[in-house]
Design a protein that fits this description.
Keywords: Phosphopantetheine, Phosphoprotein, Transferase. It comes from Micromonospora sp. CCTCC AA 2012012. One of its GO terms (molecular function) is phosphopantetheine binding. This is Beta-ketoacyl synthase N-terminal-like domain-containing protein. Pfam families: Acyl_transf_1, KAsynt_C_assoc, ketoacyl-synt, Ketoacyl-synt_C, PP-binding. By secondary structure, the chain is an alpha/beta fold. It has 4 domains: 417 residues, Thiolase/Chalcone synthase (Peroxisomal Thiolase, Chain A, domain 1), CATH 3.40.47; 60 residues, no CATH class; 253 residues, Malonyl-Coenzyme A Acyl Carrier Protein, domain 2 (3-Layer(aba) Sandwich), CATH 3.40.366.10; 77 residues, ACP-like (Non-ribosomal Peptide Synthetase Peptidyl Carrier Protein, Chain A, Orthogonal Bundle). It has 33 helices and 28 strands. The strands form 6 sheets. Strands 5-4-6-7-1-8-15-14-9-10-12 form an 11-stranded mixed sheet, sandwiched between helices. Helix 14 packs antiparallel against helix 16. The longest helix is centred in the middle third of the chain and has 22 residues. The chain is elongated and about 115 Å long.
């Protein structure tokens, strides 16, 4: 085995420590987290022999998790009934896995479908003892709620991870063996990413009794590894998870790295001096083999996190094994310690707890002091073996430190991992952009969103203000995919904190709930939208826009003999040069569309106005950039050769009013119909003056447009033939996206090419924008995005009844644009359901992941069951323990009453999933929100059939019914209902 494995993310809960930061604090102060057994675990009498003999167990002390019964089931779409049947170890691992991915800079939802393996160490199945031995109360969900495999498989299922997935039980070494197996799978290519975990929850005193009778339990409730006062082990609880990647892959993906795993080994004691007795030679062999595989010498290893149970025999054997490897001439002894002194023996999670400790030690550059180091057992003769206990933290040197982690199973399965410091990160100076980015946070509900916003506010406030852009990038990468979303563009660091806190306090500004689907229409502006310095602010703010605009300019400049960049950038100019107006507008339309496309703001259809159709053709794939640039440059050159004296006139009236006036003016034509009362005429300037006078006489408002040419009029006739010849040189292709044509006034057919004939007619014929827009709006877009240097077309669509309620967005609203509008547009669409490719908003210096606090799960819902006969207080938010549904009723002879069908069906839906009836809405998703799975669907089918005596097809329920309301409609369509008085209808 070769190749370093990177630890890129981690999370955990430990006795006395709710998260890794608190765990590190506990370790650094050599803290003690052992307490008396909580009252909700088992009866005090279970410690003692009811006949009055010696106690069953010699201690009532252990290391226990706070809120081990809490589970945010709604976040994972798990019903209360299923959650109540799940082993707490499954619940804890699911939440911890989610947070570990977030800590790695990875959105857990976006791991769906990836080749990610899940390897979990677990040795206790006490939940099964409590829930599966009462046979009358066994349910399908109690079956899936138990079993070692489900601890790993449930993570793979809920996150849709496709790599290997299994639980490991080798007793106390389970989770370190799981880590070894994950490394093997990564190096072999069986998975590209791995989640390694371990979990242990103490629910019964069974193992306490076993440890006491076997002479392994510390009667004084204190675990003292390698101490002269060692008396044995103390049981504990923990859950932890780490995310692993091959180091090269982690670096390439820009993931932060805590430490690297350089090598690992696993072996067995074989037939030694007892099944449960440790074997020095096997332990020594597994350590030496791990060093060999890691390519390190014993003298290079500065510290080892020992198994260290605190039993006299176990400590002696382990010290001898370590000494057999490390007892060589070395400048400094190897430091050893054991986290069990702080939190107890957490059994199936012991290996991963030790691993987290040493990963954090490498990350912080310090190995914590060993609790009880000052009472070192002299009989172990550690110094002679090249070993020492740390009475003070050990400062690691540089970024080349090497440490080890040992874990030994009760039945003889031994594991050892070799860890090294993470490689030095590449320094990246934060970009000094005018817009820091979009700050995002999301959740599955409004309460979760408020909690997450509050936590993110603390993270942002603690971070230096210069990192705001990188924090925005990280929030997009990790915290943006939930249904309920907060997304906004902060002006600065203080504004970011204030707005996050406002959201945490319930201000819904900048929040939204993602739609299931979005339909975007692009409106690409044409002549008349130009102004000096158009998009100059965006050019200064967005590197992506600058690059796209330069791409368009590079295509245009050889054809024009001039660049359009100054026209776009210079906001101090007073006019736009006539010969550059059309090319500049095309360049802007192309560059804006290119950035939006790269962002994922992709059109379901496109509609351009006159000149805007050239950019539409490129974005639809009908023309290449070079081809469109050729046509636009040719068009502009030919316009410049036309004699002066042309113009355009806008009139606020229907076509029917202007048509008789134009009939008397052969040098003026109808140039565009933009709306029911919005037309444009074009032609000879003197004739236009007469048209204007005639229309004013009819009380029609008119306005001359600031354009030098009479587009779409008889004045274009002298250049049509030459334009047609030049247009014939351009390659055309079928459009790949739907195009509503301003020339045709409708959607172009799949066989209609935007060819030379099209573009020649496009120059001369009127723009039928109103017809094209009406057809486009009939496609019911959810949003309109105007692509151009100012708002011109979106007001036209709002004048149409179908366009009044459709949100219209733009990345450049006009001369007073700030440059932040592209980010605001993205934030708005993200709140509404778009998952952008955020890369286009950020420069490389900003695309640096920073660790943010992981999602704060709700602790309101509680699920617990105590040992039989336990006298325990009710949890603060009690939930029902698993139980059978109430007996099926006898089939009713009468059909369901029409007036009450909704209520009766919703009652059944609530009964099956375990939610209170008032929480089951007609439009709630059965699977995503109410937690329905195939088991519940079958139960629902049975209850419907029993209630009304009608057959129900399970396949129909699974494929056709997604909400309680749809179920009601489905039943109405298949059964006869009564009017409530026995009459069938």
């Amino acid at each position: 085995m070769t190749g370093d494995i990177a630890v890129v993310g981690l999370d955990g809960r430990f006795p006395g420590a709710a998260d890794p930061a608190a765990f590190w604090d506990l370790l650094m102060r050599a803290g003690h987290a052992l307490t008396d057994v909580p009252a909700d675990r088992w009866r005090r009498a279970d410690f003692h022999d009811p006949a009055g003999g010696p106690g069953r167990t010699n201690t009532t002390v252990g290391g226990f998790l706070t809120d081990a019964d809490a589970f945010d089931h709604e976040f994972f779409g798990i019903s209360p009934r299923e959650a109540a049947a799940m082993d707490p170890q499954q619940r804890l691992m699911l939440q911890t896995a989610w947070r570990a991915f977030e800590d790695a800079g990875l959105d857990p939802r976006r791991q769906a479908g990836t080749n990610t393996g899940v390897f979990v160490g677990v040795m206790s199945n006490e939940w099964a003892q409590l829930t599966m031995t009462d046979y009358d109360r066994v349910t399908p969900h109690r079956g899936t709620g138990n079993g070692y495999c489900l601890v790993a498989n449930r993570v793979s299922y809920h996150l849709d991870l496709r790599g290997p997935s299994w639980a490991v039980d080798s007793a106390c070494s389970s989770s370190l063996v799981a880590a070894h197996q994950a490394c093997v799978a990564l190096r072999a290519g069986e998975c590209d990413q791995a989640l390694v975990g371990g979990v242990n929850v103490v629910l019964t005193p069974a193992l306490n009794i076993f440890y006491s009778q076997a002479g392994l339990s510390a009667a004084d409730g204190e675990c003292r590894p390698f101490s002269r006062d060692a008396r044995g082990i103390v049981r504990g609880e923990a859950v932890a998870a780490l995310v692993l990647r091959r180091l090269d892959d982690a670096v390439a993906a820009g993931l932060p790295v805590y430490a690297v795993i350089r090598g690992s080994a696993v072996n067995s004691d074989g037939r030694s001096n007892g099944l449960t007795a440790p074997n020095r030679w096997a332990q020594q062999a597994v350590i030496a083999e791990a060093y060999r595989r890691a390519g390190v010498a014993a003298a290079d290893v500065v510290a080892v996190e020992a198994h260290g149970t605190g039993t006299v025999l176990g400590d002696l054997v382990e010290a001898n094994a370590l000494g057999g490897v490390h007892g060589v001439p070395r400048p400094e002894p190897c430091a050893i310690g054991s986290v069990k002194a702080n939190i107890g023996h957490v059994e199936g999670a012991a290996g991963v707890a030790a691993l987290v400790k040493m990963v954090l030690a490498l990350h912080h550059g310090t190995v914590p002091a060993s609790r009880h180091a000052r009472t070192e057992n002299p009989d172990l003769r550690l110094a002679e073996k090249g070993l020492r206990l740390l009475t003070a933290p050990l400062r690691l040197r540089g970024r080349t430190s090497t440490v080890g982690v040992s874990s030994f199973g009760l039945g003889g399965t031994n594991a050892h991992l070799v860890l090294g410091s993470a490689p030095a990160p590449t320094a990246a100076a934060p970009a000094a952009g005018t817009v820091p980015g979009v700050l995002t946070v999301s959740a599955n509900g409004p309460d979760g969103l408020r909690r997450a916003a509050d936590l993110l506010a603390r993270d942002v406030e603690r971070a230096p203000s210069r990192l705001l852009g990188q924090l925005c990038w990280t929030s997009n990468a990790v915290k943006s995919s939930g249904r309920h979303r907060l997304a906004f563009v902060p002006t600065d660091h203080r504004d970011a904190v204030d707005r996050l806190r406002a959201a945490a306090d319930g201000d819904d500004t900048g929040t939204g709930r993602a739609r299931s689907t979005l339909s975007l229409g692009w409106l690409v502006t044409g002549q008349g939208a130009q102004h000096p310095g158009m998009t100059g602010a965006l050019y200064a703010a967005s590197g992506a826009y600058r690059r796209a605009l330069h791409e368009a300019d590079d295509a245009l400049t050889p054809l024009l003999g001039a660049s359009v960049l100054d026209t776009v950038r210079d906001r101090t100019a007073t006019t736009v040069p006539a010969e550059l107006a059309q090319p500049a507008l095309f360049a802007v339309g192309y560059a804006l569309g290119r950035v939006l496309d790269d962002l994922g703001v992709r059109p379901d259809w496109l509609l351009g106005h006159s000149l805007g159709e050239f950019a539409v053709a490129v974005h639809a794939g009908a023309l290449t950039l070079a081809g469109a640039a050729h046509l636009v440059a040719l068009r502009s050159r030919l316009m410049a050769r036309l004699p002066a004296g042309g113009g355009m006139l806008a009139a606020r009236c229907p076509v029917e009013v202007v048509a008789p006036v134009l009939a008397a003016e052969p040098l003026v034509d109808l140039a565009a119909v933009n709306g029911p009362r919005d037309v444009v005429c074009a032609g000879d300037a003197a004739a236009l003056d007469r048209v204007a006078e005639a229309l004013r006489g009819q009380r029609v408002a008119v306005r001359r447009l600031d354009v030098p040419y009479a587009f779409h009029s008889p004045l274009m006739d002298p250049v049509l033939d030459e334009f047609a010849r030049g247009a014939a040189e351009v390659e055309v292709r079928p459009a790949r996206r739907p195009v509503y044509s301003g020339l045709r006034g409708r959607l172009l057919g799949p066989d209609e090419l935007m060819d030379a004939d099209y573009w020649t007619a496009h120059l001369r014929e009127p723009v039928r924008f109103a017809d094209a827009a009406a057809a486009a709006l009939a496609a019911t877009p959810t949003h309109l995005v105007e692509v151009g240097p100012r708002r011109v077309l979106s007001p036209l669509l709002r004048s149409m009844p179908a366009g009044r309620t459709v949100p219209t967005l733009t990345a450049c609203p006009g001369p007073y644009a700030t440059g932040a509008e592209l980010w605001e547009l993205t934030a708005r669409l993200h709140r509404d359901g778009l998952d952008p490719d955020w890369t286009a908003l950020y420069e490389p210096q900003q695309r640096v992941l920073r660790r943010l606090s992981p999602y704060p799960f709700s602790t309101a819902a509680r699920f617990w069951i105590s040992a039989p006969g336990a006298a325990t207080p009710e949890p603060s938010h009690p939930m029902p323990e698993p139980a059978h549904l109430r007996p099926l009723p006898a089939p009713r002879p009468a059909p369901p009453p029409a007036d009450h069908l909704d209520d009766e069906v919703l009652d059944l839906v609530a009964e099956v999933c375990g939610y209170p009836r008032h929480q089951v809405a007609r439009d709630a998703s059965l699977h995503e929100q109410l937690g329905y799975d195939s088991i519940m669907v079958v139960q629902l089918k049975e209850r419907i059939e029993a209630r009304w005596g009608i057959p129900v097809d399970v396949r129909a329920l699974l494929t056709e019914v997604g909400t309680p309301g749809q179920l009601v409609d489905h039943l109405r369509s298949r059964v006869v209902v009564s009017d409530g008085e026995g009459h069938r209808g």
